[in-house]
Design brief:
The structure is a single chain. The protein is of the alpha+beta class. 25% of the residues lie in helices and 33% in strands. It contains 14 helices and 28 strands. Strands 8-13-14-10-11-12-9 form a seven-stranded mixed sheet. Strands 22-27-28-24-25-26-23 form a seven-stranded mixed sheet. A five-stranded mixed sheet has the order 1-6-7-3-4, with no helix packed on it. The longest helix is centred in the first third of the chain and has 13 residues.
């Protein structure tokens, strides 16, 4: 699947919809990240639906308590299903309507990660009892590196009531005394001054991030709790998993259709209906019609309307994040695409065309890094059996960048096995495979053929 978007931008946006926890072996509940619970409080119901990578669904009960948010009912059952007897990281990717994608990491957490998580639970406790007010700021990199922070009017008005010269920001790692800059002339403004940069540096803020500022609702208080969402997972592992659910296209100014990534369309063919629901970052929903054609998958009905709504008159990247049931999060990048990206996208559309007409068979392999760097590739039994019919000694892998002649290693003794041998490493190197990645192998269904089309979501 092709991704022409600015990866940093997309990952930063995706971080807003995710958090992780560590399963604690002696706890009958799952702790929910407080910042996440506060940010999405209006959106959450008491019943959450969790869906894992295999499509299994689980229902758990959320206590809807912002003092100590937890998953209670159904948690013990979840532990038994995944055989969680130790400390394990669980990643939650929020897709809306109290539904989540989850990834349960089977390996035991390192002691340092466990200590960090337990310390974080303690650090996130409220500073005071009673009602609280929350103010939200989505920081950009410039604000993280600035010497001051402009505050929204409501937060500024709250602090003005106390006539404070300083406030104390209580973060997870450090408490910092910060100067308040409250001005009325020539224009009313409220800022956190000296101390802000120290606070950001202490907490490692350097990219876009959501901050929740929690204060006393009863009276204006200069003690301010600051929280951001916590992620204890291995980021590379999660991003690799997330890439299985996303693709991007470039809006072509002269086309009345949107091209869908072929690898994505084939991988999720059984799951995708003819009607797709798209939801942008503001919560706006759009319905488009998918032609469900694996030869040339496209979005047809509703595409012209979408172009008008977002005023797409040029070449723009559109990111699609799949959340299941033919529903997608979309991000439309307003800046015009660079000529090189446009040329690459057009070339990719051409390169992804089928090698031959007629019915096709598809075989799927989810490569791990070891397979990407190996001298051979073990094939699943069904793919091996297909190739055995032709009694080939070699096959030709047609990738987006290069076609490579590869030796076939078909053995029956001492154990039946099918492998792609010499040529495999050259193919991986030519396409820059080095991490986990989905590959789609497309072949002729009518008769065994040594010409194999390889489709993937890697960047080209």
């Amino acid at each position: 699947m092709e991704n022409n978007f600015n990866e940093d931008d997309v990952i930063n946006k995706m971080i807003r919809y995710q958090f992780s926890i560590i399963h604690l072996q002696d706890e009958a509940v799952g702790f929910v990240d407080r910042a996440f619970a506060i940010l999405y409080d209006d959106d959450f119901e008491r019943q959450w639906t969790l869906k894992d990578e295999e499509g299994n669904r689980h229902v758990v009960t959320y206590n809807k308590n912002l003092q100590k948010p937890m998953l209670i009912g159904g948690w013990t059952k979840l532990r038994h299903i995944y055989e969680l007897h130790n400390f394990h990281t669980i990643y939650f990717g929020y897709v809306g309507d109290s539904c989540f994608h989850i990834t349960v990491f089977p390996s035991k957490c390192k002691p340092l990660s466990i200590a960090h998580f337990l310390k974080r639970i303690e650090a996130d406790q409220p500073l005071f009892n009673g009602p609280k007010l929350h103010f939200f700021i989505f920081l950009n990199p410039n604000q993280c590196n600035a010497s001051h922070l402009d505050l929204p009017a409501d937060f500024g008005n709250y602090l003005r009531q106390g006539r404070f010269k300083y406030i104390f920001l209580y973060g997870p790692r450090k408490t910092v005394k910060c100067k308040l800059l409250l001005r009325n002339h020539p224009k009313k403004s409220s800022k956190i001054g000296s101390g802000w940069k120290e606070f950001c540096t202490a907490h490692g803020f350097h990219q876009t991030i959501d901050l929740v500022f929690e204060v006393d609702h009863i009276k204006s208080n200069q003690n301010v709790k600051s929280k951001q969402m916590e992620n204890n997972f291995n980021e590379d592992d999660v991003i690799n998993r997330m890439s299985r659910y996303q693709f991007s296209i470039i809006h072509l100014q002269d086309e009345v259709v949107g091209f869908v990534d072929r690898a994505f369309a084939i991988l999720y063919d059984d799951d995708l209906e003819r009607q797709w629901t798209l939801r942008d970052e503001e919560g706006n929903r759009h319905v488009v019609t998918y032609n469900k054609n694996l030869q040339k998958p496209m979005l047809i009905g509703g595409w012209t309307e979408l172009r008008h709504i977002y005023e797409l008159h040029d070449f723009h990247t559109i990111y699609f994040g799949y959340v299941g049931d033919s529903c997608f999060h979309i991000t439309i990048f307003p800046s015009k695409c660079k000529p090189l990206s446009i040329a690459r996208f057009l070339k990719r559309i051409e390169a992804d065309q089928p090698l031959f007409n007629g019915p096709k068979l598809h075989f799927f392999i989810f490569l791990n890094p070891n397979q990407c760097n190996a001298s051979h590739l073990d094939l699943p039994a069904d793919f091996g059996n297909y190739l055995r019919q032709g009694r080939f000694k070699y096959i030709f892998l047609y990738g987006p960048r290069k076609t490579v002649k590869c030796k076939l290693l078909l053995r029956n003794h001492p154990k039946k096995s099918s492998k792609i041998g010499s040529g495999w490493k050259e193919f991986c190197t030519a396409h820059g495979f080095h991490q986990t990645i989905d590959l789609v192998f497309e072949v002729d269904h009518i008769k065994s053929n040594q010409n194999v089309k390889v489709l993937t979501y890697c960047n080209f």
